[in-house]
Amino acid sequence: MAANKTVIITVINKAYVEANNDEYPSMFDLFLEGFWVGEETRPLLRHLLVVSMDSTAHERCQFRRLNCYRLAAEGGGDGFAGEKIYMSNEFIEMMWKRTSFVLDVLKRGYNFIFTDTDVLWLRDPFKRLINNQSIDLHISTDAYNGDPSSIKNHINTGFYFIKSSTKTTSFFQKWYDMRKNSTGMKEQDVLVKLVRQGVIRELDLNARFLDTLYFSGFCKDSHDVRLVVTVHANCCRSIRAKVTDLKAVLRDWKRFKDDESKGNIGVVGNTTNGFRWSRHLSCLNSWHKRNI
């Protein structure tokens, strides 16, 4: 991947690297554990760039001897250190800050996968993303409608693969510029609006929306553990809930791999016999404010 200037980018802050209520693992711990237990994912860590939003997160990244980059808040300091609850003003500001950063990466000629830290990589995604070299952008969905070209798919900006070009840089620049007229909207909703307005056709982008069978999440589980590549803790409001339910995903995955190694996994129809994901109850309950 290094040969064609392709990197993997994730963004962390203090809330992602420290224990929630003094209980480890942290969300960043779980993210890295996914690379450890996934299929052919360990070598990918060499290509991971961890962007830290505060000094604590940056120090934790350096302690793990990863590729670390410190991205400061406006005016410096650690303004992005704490947990930013979904759709709070601080959350929206942090999302736009990371959009600005990845725009700069594109301008520098790098292709990249952007991945939220609440995405577990269980298999190497590049094997599914680079088959068609003509595609400019692959982006994940909360719900997949069956058509990889349909702009009516429910976009999720927590995982996407984009190639650097004049077209894609223009696309991201338009997206970032729309923040000025989008007060109170998170960057994902602004992107959805832009896509629905026809920017993909306008810029002649070749975009594909990813099937939740392979790139799944809590909004929509993959129904085939033999094919799942990533699992995203989307449709979830708090870090505490994400950590609880991602731990369950890792337990499910390890149980599947253990059964597979023992020859206990059979296939009936289109499902894997004997396997079922645990319910994401903590994330479901996180939408009740008393539980965050």
TrEMBL record:
InterPro entries: At1g28695/At4g15970-like, Nucl-diP-sugar_transferase. Keywords: Transferase. One of its GO terms (molecular function) is transferase activity. The keyword Transferase applies. The keyword Transmembrane does not apply. Residues 44-246 form the Nucleotide-diphospho-sugar transferase domain. PANTHER family: EXPRESSED PROTEIN-RELATED, OS03G0731800 PROTEIN. This is Nucleotide-diphospho-sugar transferase family protein. It comes from Perilla frutescens var. hirtella.
